[in-house]
Structures are given as structure tokens and as C-alpha cells.
Design a protein that fits this description.
heterodimer, A: 191 residues, alpha+beta, 5-stranded antiparallel sheet, 4-stranded antiparallel sheet, 11 strands, elongated, B: alpha+beta, 22 strands, 27% strand
Chain lengths: 191, 458
């Protein structure tokens, strides 16, 4: 991952831009110059856009630029290269989506369902072979990451909305999930 | 080659309408839906459905990653975008291609070229189509706008380059007004479309809005399927569409068709599309814009030609050739479409979402109703207010209008707080100027000002 160019534009804590060279075959001078230019452009862009930027994806071949804004409820996505899963570049403060999705788990007041914030593929760990974020019986704090949902190569951390004990990780590693689908069940401390 | 499974990236009546054709073609369908639409008919109708996000469209129907992921998860080979939402988003079409999914629509480059309204104007002028005097591309300042205004003469119309759906358009009658209009439209365009560019054209006050339906295939064949007259509109929002246009002579009709085909060929158009024209009082037509999608009012053309436009869109996207030539397309009789919206004409057309305790669409000869709702459903407040399209066919225009009125009278819609445009539509159909086919695009606004207040005063 040494060939990945990473730059950040600070504009408040939740604003970050991750710049990556997707066309990693090209290593020449021209590419570096172009990337430098692009990074400057991104810096200007980040200053110009309203609201905090959650992620920026750049592609050099055919020149693609994608900006993601942070939604109030959704955690900012984290980029990773297309080919290999990797640990997130940084772990932003993930927020639960339970309010947005509407949890169907309401019979038991002490039961809390962590639901998927988007459509994608669910991962229980930061990378293949790594220990899972949570296992049944684990205690989690509110805001703690319990899994990742990948959508279009963006890794989106999923956080527990409340503190509690993990009862079950409902979805298997690498399985497709819908928006609002229950991923992890917790037994909360305070019903 | 054909598709085995298609994802429909839309909601409501158009999602259902596309799914119906897919079913007839033996293609499996995947619906995507937001939380607000979980009980909608189009979701139940599809073979599979994926919940892609919460009610706000930007996090569901407009979310490219959500739609693409849903397509990849379900193994959909193609995406039909319907109208609105992502249907004219060239970047989305490109991302589909990059993900190995066929976007059912024109090629992204073509979408881009015709989606920029100022650019489309110069492209069509190149292809030999008449265009109104106006700015050469986008206007960069208020001073430039004023210079162009005095050059081409007032009144002028200012339009957002990236606009659509009748939004981002305003008329200026003189120089002082143009200054304000320029400021307003650029600000609105920036906010609504993320692109503040506008262009200027001469405004034709008494004009008709006539559009030509096009189909093109990958071999470069382009045919037109006649026109639709959409002059009955309120503030650029269409209320009633009909075919054929009562304002065109056979000769003018033929010329419009030729223009449309020439323009589409010039940009390499494939799939279904519409070319919009303004037709002035003396029958002269000028190019307005190209809509690179299936349109709301496409059933009007289907009634007249017997061609299933969605079916042809899908076939062309799968690489098949058009199954008919221009000569084989026959336009028979007359068709009228009325848009039934859940809006209150007595309260400034405020949307009236709510539960449909009664919803009984009309039937009988020559009647087609495209709706995403059934009795007991709730109209969500999150999307557009159209609840049904009533389309009728009859041998003549007079009979079609009578049939439309008969069907509207049968159409029962009730619910707490729910009002519809049905009474307004009936009042408009009964207007002598509409019956005579002498109405222009300003007709409804004038009618509302002069008579509407009597019908809908509280």
C-alpha cells in the first residue's frame, strides 16, 4: 500500500479527504504531476463545498472524482483499494443508523438491533484473517464499531447505537445486506 | 441476446409499468425501494426487492452506490432508470458500465451532450434544426445577459443549462427584469442542479409545446413515432398531453418528425428519447431540448402506435435492432393523458399526501390507467404528487376528450386530507379553447387567474 497517495484536508475534525491513485500501474513523472494537480484541485474543492466532506475518491485514468458528504446519521465512509481488503485508513467516529432505519426489534425492551446503514456487503472484521470486531458475549460501548458494510469499494463502519452485550452477529461475513437489515443484536444495559 | 433479470431504479407507477413489460418479455425484475415505499405495489409486483435506503431520495433512489450494490447483489444484468431520479445522469450510466451492468438508455457521452441544454441547442443548430435566437452557450454574467437581451429583443427566457422538469426557467420582459431573473435563476440552478449556468433565448409568448417521440438502435437507425402536444401546463408542469397535436398540419407534422430524426442521428442517439419543440402561432417550430429518457407521457404515443416503448428500450439496450421501419409506424386515432395529482388547486396546488380510503380507477373501452397505488395505500409525502396517469384512446380528438371526461368522472379518489386535480382537469377539458385546440402554454395560468379562483375559492 506504499503506492497509495494519501492527503488530508483539515476543515474540522470530521472532514477528511483520502486521495488515492487507482491506476497504480502508471508511476511516471507525469502521473505524479497530475496527482499533485488533482490534490490541489481537491483542496480547493473541499474549501468550496458546503458542509463537511466525508470522503473523496479520485481516479486518474478518465479522470473521475467522487465526493461524499457526511450525513448527520451515517458514518463517513473509508476508502480502500479495489483489489485487496485492508484496514480502514482511519476509524472515524461511526454513528448508529438505528433511528433512521427503524428497528423492528421492540418486543423486548432490553434488546437492541444494530442495522445496516446502507446496501452492501457485510464484514465482521477489518480484513480477512483479522479478529472480528465483536463476538457474542462481548461488551460494546455506544459508538463502538461492530462491523463494516462495503458499498462500491467504500468501507462504512457500523457502530452500536447503545452500550450492551453482544447476543448475536446475525449476518455472516461477506454476505449481502439491505438497508435497515439487522446485523447484530445486543442486550442493552438500561432497558 | 436478451436480459434475464433487470433492476428497476425507480418507484411508483413507472416502476410498475416497466416491471409489467419485463414480465411479458419473460424477464425477472428487481425492485429497489425506500422505507417510505415498503408497502408499495411496485415492490410487491417485482420478483425480488431490495430495501436501499430511508425515505429521502438522495439516500435511496438517488444513491448510486445503493442502486449499484442492489444490482450486483441480485445479479441484475441491466438497470432501467425510469424517469427522474438517475435517468439522465451520465455518471451513473458510466458507473453501471464499469460495474458490468447495462444502463437502459443512450450512451453516457450522448446523455452528456444533450443533457447540457445550451450545448444541445448548438448541436441541433449544426444538424440543421431551427433554434430561437439566443446566447451561444452559457451566459457568464448579468452584463452579458443584458447585452444578449438587447441583441435578440425582449421578452427573453432564461433557462438553467442543467435544468429539467420545468424548473429553473423564468421569463424576463425587459432589461431591468432580466437583471433580477438572471440572479434568481443562476442561484436556483446552483442550488437545485449543482450548476449555476444559464442560457438565454427569445421567448415566444403564445406557443405550443410539441415533442416528438424517438427510437434509435445501435445500427444507427432512428425513427419517430409522431408527436405529443403538452401545451396544457401550469407553470411548466404538464397537466394534459395529447396526440396528435391539434396545431400541426400534415406537412408541419412531417417536417417536425424529420427534424427530430436528423437531430437524433447527429448525436448518435440510441434508445427512447424525446425532442421538444416550441410551435409558434403561425406553425413555425423551433428546437427546445432533448429528453434522454422515457417520459411520463409516453403512453400517449403507445396508444396511438401500438408500440410498447419500454419494450423497445430494453430490446435496443440488449443490442437488438428496431423491428420496424419509419414507414411501418402508423398513427391511429387520438389519445389524451391526464395527470391525476394529489394536490389542492384551491390552495396553490399544495401536495396532499395521505391514506387513500377510496381509490377506484375508471375502466371501459379505450381507457388505460397507470398508477402505483391501490385502495388503502398511503401517498408518501416524500416524492412527487402524481397518483395516476389516465390515458384514453378514441378514433377522433373530440371522442377522446369526451372519453377522458367520462373516465375522470368515474375516477373515485378519497382520503382524509387528500385532494386531487380531477375537478381541475375536467374543467380544463371543458374549455372551448381547449376543445378548439387553440390553447397555448400560458392557457392554464390564465384560466386559473380568471376562472380558477371562482371554482376553488374557499
Amino acid at each position: 500500500m506504499s503506492e497509495r497517495a494519501t492527503g488530508r484536508q483539515g476543515r474540522g475534525e470530521d472532514t477528511h479527504a483520502v486521495v488515492r491513485d487507482a491506476e497504480r500501474r502508471s508511476e511516471g513523472e507525469e502521473t505524479h504531476a497530475a496527482m499533485r494537480l488533482l490534490r490541489e484541485e481537491v483542496a480547493n474543492l473541499v474549501k468550496a463545498v458546503p458542509g463537511p466532506v466525508a470522503g473523496i475518491s479520485l481516479r486518474l485514468g478518465e479522470c473521475a472524482l467522487e465526493v461524499t458528504w457526511a450525513f448527520p446519521q451515517a458514518p463517513p465512509p473509508v476508502l480502500r483499494p479495489a483489489s485487496q481488503p485492508a484496514a480502514p485508513v482511519q476509524q472515524p467516529a461511526a454513528v448508529t443508523t438505528e433511528q433512521a432505519a427503524g428497528s423492528p426489534e421492540r418486543e423486548d425492551p432490553a434488546s437492541y438491533a444494530v442495522t445496516s446503514p446502507l446496501v452492501g456487503t457485510f464484514y465482521v472484521a477489518a480484513e480477512p484473517g483479522a479478529p472480528p470486531f465483536v463476538r457474542p458475549g462481548d461488551r460494546v460501548d455506544a459508538g463502538q464499531t461492530v462491523g463494516l458494510v462495503e458499498a462500491m469499494k467504500l468501507m462504512n463502519p457500523v457502530a452500536a447505537g447503545q452500550a450492551g452485550e453482544v447476543v448475536e452477529v446475525v449476518v455472516g461475513n461477506g454476505e449481502p445486506v439491505e438497508y435497515g437489515q439487522v446485523l447484530v443484536r445486543l442486550r442493552t444495559d438500561e432497558p | 441476446m436478451s436480459f434475464g433479470r433487470i433492476l428497476i431504479a425507480n418507484r411508483g407507477e413507472i416502476a410498475l409499468r416497466v416491471a409489467r413489460t419485463c414480465r411479458e418479455m419473460g424477464i425477472e425484475t428487481v425492485a429497489v425501494y425506500s422505507t417510505a415505499d415498503r408497502d408499495a405495489r411496485f415492490v410487491a409486483y417485482a420478483d425480488r426487492a431490495v430495501h436501499i435506503g430511508p425515505a429521502p431520495a438522495r439516500r435511496s433512489y438517488l444513491s448510486v452506490p445503493a442502486v449499484i450494490e442492489a444490482a450486483l447483489q441480485t445479479g441484475a444484468e441491466a438497470i432501467h432508470p425510469g424517469y427522474g431520479f438517475l435517468s439522465e445522469d451520465a455518471d451513473f450510466a458510466r458507473i453501471c458500465a464499469d460495474s458490468g451492468i447495462t444502463f437502459i438508455g443512450p450512451r453516457p457521452e450522448v446523455m452528456e451532450r444533450v443533457g447540457d441544454k445550451a450545448r444541445a441547442r448548438s448541436l441541433m443548430a449544426e444538424a440543421g434544426l431551427p433554434v430561437l435566437p439566443g446566447s451561444d452557450g452559457a451566459v457568464s454574467s448579468a452584463a452579458e445577459a443584458e447585452r444578449i437581451g438587447s441583441e435578440i429583443g425582449y421578452p427573453v427566457i432564461v433557462k438553467a443549462v442543467a435544468g429539467g422538469g420545468g424548473r429553473g426557467i423564468e421569463v424576463a420582459r425587459d432589461r431591468a427584469e432580466l437583471r433580477d431573473v438572471y440572479r434568481r435563476t443562476t442561484a436556483l440552478a446552483r442550488r437545485m442542479f449543482g450548476d449555476g449556468d444559464v442560457y438565454i433565448e427569445r421567448f415566444v409568448p403564445v406557443a405550443r409545446h410539441v415533442e416528438v417521440q424517438l427510437l434509435g438502435d445501435s445500427a444507427g437507425t432512428v425513427v419517430h413515432l409522431g408527436e405529443r402536444d403538452c401545451s396544457l401546463q401550469r407553470r411548466n408542469q404538464k397537466l394534459v398531453e395529447e396526440a396528435p397535436s391539434p396545431a400541426l398540419s400534415e406537412e408541419a407534422r412531417g417536417r417536425l418528425g424529420e427534424y427530430a430524426v436528423a437531430g437524433a442521428r447527429h448525436v448518435g442517439y440510441t434508445g427512447a428519447g424525446t425532442m421538444e419543440f416550441l410551435v409558434g402561432p403561425t406553425g413555425e417550430a423551433t428546437f427546445m431540448e432533448i429528453n434522454a429518457r422515457i417520459q411520463v407521457e409516453h403512453p400517449v404515443t403507445e396508444m396511438l402506435t401500438g408500440v410498447d416503448l419500454v419494450r423497445e428500450q430494453i430490446r435496443v439496450a440488449a443490442g437488438e435492432l428496431l423491428p420496424f421501419t419509419q414507414e411501418q409506424i402508423r398513427l391511429t386515432g387520438a389519445a389524451v393523458e391526464c395527470r391525476v395529482n394529489a394536490e389542492d388547486p384551491g390552495a396553490g396546488f399544495r401536495p396532499t399526501p395521505g391514506r387513500l380510503t377510496v381509490f377506484r380507477p375508471p375502466g371501459g373501452p379505450g381507457v388505460r390507467v397507470d398508477s402505483g397505488f391501490a385502495q388503502g395505500d398511503t401517498i408518501p409525502p416524500d416524492y412527487d404528487s402524481m397518483i395516476a396517469k389516465l390515458v384514453v384512446w378514441a378514433p377522433t380528438r373530440k371522442e377522446a376528450i369526451a372519453r377522458a371526461d367520462r373516465a375522470l368522472a368515474e375516477f373515485a379518489v378519497e382520503g382524509p386530507g387528500v385532494a386531487t386535480t380531477i375537478p381541475l382537469l375536467r374543467a380544463l377539458l371543458a374549455q372551448p379553447r381547449f376543445a378548439a385546440g387553440e390553447h397555448g402554454t400560458g392557457f392554464v395560468d390564465t384560466f386559473m387567474r380568471e376562472e380558477g379562483h371562482m371554482l376553488w375559492s374557499a
